[in-house]
Design brief:
By secondary structure, this protein is α+β, with helices and mostly antiparallel strands. It has 6 domains: 4-102 and 285-314, no CATH class; 111-258, 3-Layer(aba) Sandwich (YojJ-like (1); 317-399, RNA Polymerase Alpha Subunit, Chain A, domain 2, CATH 2.170.120; 407-505, YbbR-like domain (RNA Polymerase Alpha Subunit, Chain A, domain 2, Beta Complex); 509-601, RNA Polymerase Alpha Subunit, Chain A, domain 2, CATH 2.170.120; 603-692, RNA Polymerase Alpha Subunit, Chain A, domain 2 (Beta Complex). 31% of the residues lie in helices and 37% in strands. Helix 6 runs antiparallel to helix 10. The protein is elongated, with a radius of gyration of 58 Å.
Length: 693
């Protein structure tokens, strides 16, 4: 629910979005309502309509002002029900008013003298003859308002009006006698037409038949003149402008038809004198003036409501939210900074039309907070939202206020502290020596006063892990607090320095490689194809003169590979002088290393010939093979090839005879069975197989 202030703001916003054609629309709708009130305010329906309007306005006001969701939903349904039921309740009055309005404001077309001459006499003569014969008839003389729907309901004739034609049509022996005849000018345009029945409650209606009620209904729905002949009594009646005149003789009927055409010929346009004579503004007194002003004001209010409702239907205004609107900080005093900044984005509540909404995004709004006049410490600042988009009403931001902390910016000069990492990962042959150097060795830190005061040192770190010479790198700087925590929101100038750490080799130590020494030979057909030492390098430490004579490698004691096959793993001592010790990468003394030897069989080739064997031969066919023997080139380890030479049955060539058919001659690639690890290649790629029954 909206409060009254929101309703007024929304109303003014919608007025501001109106375009010139909207004002013309409101003006014309106001005139229409005013004319409608002028038509009904003296009728009995006026009281009902005034009550409905008063009730609708009261419910609408209650729905806008009172924060009652359930009651508001009921009011909304009630207003919709009123909107639907009013036209139904006032249907007879509305139809009668519209018909009278149309007749009053009709445009004259042509003088009907010619039609009168061609129609009056035949219609009068036919009506008299039908009345004497007690033959029922219904004749419609069309006025200014055309009757296309009535004509479409009958049988088209388009014949000249004659008394004989009319008497023939309404004769009981003709198929067109039921329904009405429609005469347009001097033509019978259709017969057997269906007319609307009146819905009015009439005195004596129990004595009126369907023809008379149809004549009244047609006169209420148009400006036509209808002649009715009663089948029971033979009386002649006429209906015009919702009025029924009964029991006319021939001369009275002739005069009535003549008056009908004469009055229609005298009709003037809507802007003629009669209109202004009937509708010009009169001022009998102050009370009449105030009453008209009140109706005019009510018409204007209803026009606004109707126009708003139609616009809401075609291009509805909705309340919605735009998220992720960037928030900008403005007017921050010089020499101050934000220690707790506001959120980067906010949400904006706004009102706009559906058509305008499609072109809106977060950048369509400008959300700002002004920091002018803020003090050190915590501040609560309202969020201001504007937009350059048209037809958009900003209701506010979420959050409407933000909390920020502001502090004065200060500066300090501090030395650079260097932290060296990875010394424990240096080889035992190297050490860190000399002074650690930072260039520059002092920097300036600046930022909010509370943060700068927290800084205990400015430090950088450098690693010497695995280094064998001096390390020189450009390293970033960090501002650290008393407990080693990083202090954010401060600037360091410069923010990185050149750090130099000297790494040198010890006089009594040196890094050397480890070389495995082997003795003996693998079995015949095998060879040593891999030899690995773990660790592959050590640090030797001892007398500098002895170490200088040892070279770049130390050897292991011999590893015996006699008869070795596959992988052989041996822990073997190093062959080093007694006064020299070996150290691993962690600086621990070691006397042995792990040697892994990989002995693999040698590879070779073997050419063999094998007969082709038939399998699954059912004996029902005579099968010949060309050639009967095939040659194979085998490749693989020499020991397995030697075993194949000793045992030929290890290699076989087969063809499956199960799928062979009689009188078949096909090329077949045979299946070859060889030991694992052996590759083969057929010298002849296929065998010709012939099957005979």
């Amino acid at each position: 629910m909206l409060d009254l202030n929101s309703v007024i703001t929304s109303f003014l916003f919608r007025l501001d979005t109106l375009e010139p054609l909207d004002f013309l629309d409101i003006f014309l709708v106001t005139i229409a309502f005013y004319l409608l009130f002028s038509l009904i305010r003296r009728s009995q329906a006026a009281f009902l309509l005034r009550g409905i309007i008063a009730l609708a306005l009261l419910l609408l006001l209650a729905n806008l002002v009172l924060p009652l969701p359930t009651f508001g939903a009921i009011i909304t349904v009630a207003l919709l029900a009123i909107l639907i039921t009013v036209p139904i309740t006032l249907q007879p009055e509305l139809r009668r008013w519209l018909e009278q309005f149309g007749r009053r404001f009709g445009f004259s077309l042509t003088n009907r003298d010619t039609a009168a001459e061609e129609v009056i006499s035949p219609v009068t003569r036919a009506a008299g003859n039908l009345s004497t014969a007690h033959t029922g008839a219904l004749i419609v003389l069309e006025g200014h308002v055309r009757l296309p729907e009535v004509v479409a309901s009958g049988v088209p004739l388009n014949s000249r009006v004659t008394s004989e034609l009319l008497e023939t049509i309404f004769s009981e022996k003709t198929p067109l006698h039921d329904g009405a005849v429609v005469i347009r000018r001097d033509q019978v345009v259709a017969a057997s037409c269906v007319l609307p029945l009146t819905e009015r409650e009439l005195r004596g209606s129990q004595r009126l038949g369907t023809r008379h009620r149809a004549a009244l209904g047609m006169s209420e729905a148009s400006d036509a003149f209808i002649v009715v002949i009663s089948e029971e009594t033979g009386t002649i009646s006429v209906a015009c402008e919702g009025r029924l005149d009964r029991r006319l003789d021939r001369s009275a009927l002739h005069q009535s038809i003549s008056d009908f055409y004469t009055q229609r010929a005298e009709t003037r346009p809507v802007v003629g004198w009669r209109f202004w004579q009937n509708w010009h503004f009169k001022m009998p007194g102050l009370r009449r003036i105030l009453a008209n002003l009140a109706y005019l004001l009510l018409s204007f209010v209803l026009a606004l409501i109707a126009t708003t409702a139609v616009r809401q239907q075609n291009n509805p205004f909705i309340n919605t939210t735009m998220s992720n609107v960037p928030l900008e900080v403005l007017d921050l005093p010089s020499g101050m900074t934000l220690t707790t900044p506001p959120p980067g984005t906010v949400s904006v509540d706004f009102q706009t039309s559906v058509n305008e909404l499609t072109g809106l995004g977060p950048n369509s709004f400008q959300a700002t907070v002004s920091m002018a006049g803020v003090q050190n410490g915590a501040n609560r600042i309202p969020v201001n939202v504007t937009t350059t988009a048209s037809k958009v009403l900003v209701n506010g931001a979420k959050p409407a206020e933000v909390d920020v902390n502001v502090a004065t910016i200060i500066s300090r000069t501090m030395p650079v502290a260097i932290e060296v990492n990875g010394e424990d990962q240096l080889s035992a042959a190297y050490e860190v020596g000399g002074q650690k150097i930072a260039n520059p060795d002092e920097v300036i830190i600046s930022g909010p006063e509370p943060q700068v005061e927290r800084v205990a040192k400015v430090a950088t770190a450098i690693s010497v892990a695995g280094a064998t010479t001096t390390v020189r790198e450009t390293r970033p700087l960090l501002a650290l607090g008393a407990n080693g925590e990083t202090v954010d929101d401060v600037d360091i100038d410069p923010d990185e320095v050149m750090v130099t750490v000297f790494v040198r080799q010890r006089n009594d130590a040196r890094d050397v490689g480890v070389r495995a020494v082997t003795t003996g030979s693998p079995p015949e057909g095998y060879w040593l194809n891999g030899l690995r030492v773990e660790p592959g390098g050590v640090t030797i430490q001892g007398d500098r003169n002895v170490i200088a004579e040892m070279g770049s490698f130390v050897d292991t004691l011999p590893v015996d590979l006699s008869g070795a096959v596959g992988e052989t793993i041996v822990e073997i001592p190093l062959d080093i002088p007694a006064d020299v010790q070996a150290l691993d990468s962690n600086g621990n003394a070691i006397g042995t290393v792990i040697v892994t030897a990989q002995v693999a069989p040698r590879s070779g080739d073997l050419l063999v010939e094998r007969p082709v064997e038939l399998i699954n031969d059912r004996g029902t066919l005579t099968i010949t093979l060309e050639p009967p023997d095939v040659t194979l080139l085998l490749s693989g380890p020499l020991p397995i090839l030697d075993e194949i030479e000793e045992s030929p049955e290890l290699v076989s060539v087969q063809i499956d005879a199960l799928d062979l058919k009689p009188n078949q001659r096909v090329e077949v690639i045979p299946d070859v069975i060889v030991p694992e690890g052996i590759d083969y290649q057929l010298v002849e790629s296929s065998v010709l197989v012939t099957s005979i029954p």
